[in-house]
């Protein structure tokens, strides 16, 4: 069978509606044109509806709503990170210890820029390339960890809901692009043995209040964030509190969390426009978050522009860390690395294709108070101002099953297609096309013989009752005879008397 014959065979026998009227030879050409036009309109309409279903599945599969059934919620207190800020007293002490009491005091500024590096390198540029100051040339990561304060030097007292605890047992080291911080209840912070040490703080109807009290010895920034997030250069100012000496600051926090329907995980990142923490392909951290993604993006931009990255960058290889010349390159492109911009913006900055985390809550400062204290420490008190009355929720409105049902309904409505219709298409143009010609001719001859037998066959009358010759004699000749008030179709039997004597 040739291709043309296979097409004609398919059109004559397919279960798709309307196509057989196009292929039948006995149809007038106007009928064929009419049915061909109807089939084309149906196929185009079906395809248009299928594309609309696919577009809705890709772009409108998730609904983002506000839920207010809040009576039985457990509200999680945010994770807290404490990051030391420009501790010049510590720098003076460590520089005297490392380089002696009579060292050049410009070196102190250089060490401060290295230890608390955020892109600025003014003193490195002024004093490290003219030979006047003997600046360190390598091991910047180790030098920064040596100069920066450890956990016992930072924390003086910690309390949760007015219950004291050992600060350094729960505030764990967390490497960030702004240096080593100490984080409470962070997924990214790990102990040396690799085990997490979480102390979750929950608030609900039974325990409506939750608070954390910190007393710090050094000037630091206190960050609040989700468990997967980390402090980074672009942290929101509303989520960073400056711990200044001789001041007690108290903040009331409002939390609005995000819940995800179980089916949200079955959708793609493009559909839900967010990413779960375990869907991580980043090298800087173990879990995904928006801040972790921005950190990774900045690292790649630094490597692309300067062929090295900051010595404070988490999980940076030794071969990737910048020398003094590399730090100067980062300083010259400071705006390109530190300022975030959208992909369509023309201003100078960093454009990163990062989506938010699917469980990232929203934090707002509701109240703020400050008091002067006599002690040379800084106190930060964070408390949950009230239990939340609403939260966000992602629901799946168009899942895979909805898409299949929609597309199947469109195909069935317009062209009468089903899954087996496409199996037919495969069959007619593969297995049936490869059938031997002898088998095809034999099948055609059998069909012709069967048609001839059907046309030549006649119904034989069965007579019941009187059998007189008058009753059996036909009333008229022709192709139709009338015997004993019974209508018989087909040729009349022979009128030989011996033929009727058998009855």
Automatic annotation (TrEMBL):
<keyword id="KW-0812">Transmembrane</keyword>
<feature type="transmembrane region" description="Helical">
    <location>
        <begin position="403"/>
        <end position="429"/>
    </location>
</feature>
<keyword id="KW-0894">Sodium channel</keyword>
<dbReference type="Pfam" id="PF00858">
    <property type="entry name" value="ASC"/>
</dbReference>
<keyword id="KW-1133">Transmembrane helix</keyword>
<dbReference type="GO" id="GO:0005886">
    <property type="term" value="C:plasma membrane"/>
</dbReference>
<dbReference type="GO" id="GO:0015280">
    <property type="term" value="F:ligand-gated sodium channel activity"/>
</dbReference>
<keyword id="KW-0407">Ion channel</keyword>
<feature type="region of interest" description="Disordered">
    <location>
        <begin position="465"/>
        <end position="503"/>
    </location>
</feature>
<comment type="similarity">
    <text>Belongs to the amiloride-sensitive sodium channel (TC 1.A.6) family.</text>
</comment>
<dbReference type="InterPro" id="IPR001873">
    <property type="entry name" value="ENaC"/>
</dbReference>
<keyword id="KW-0915">Sodium</keyword>
<keyword id="KW-0813">Transport</keyword>
<protein>
    <submittedName>
        <fullName>Sodium channel protein Nach</fullName>
    </submittedName>
</protein>
<keyword id="KW-0739">Sodium transport</keyword>
<keyword id="KW-0406">Ion transport</keyword>
<keyword id="KW-0472">Membrane</keyword>
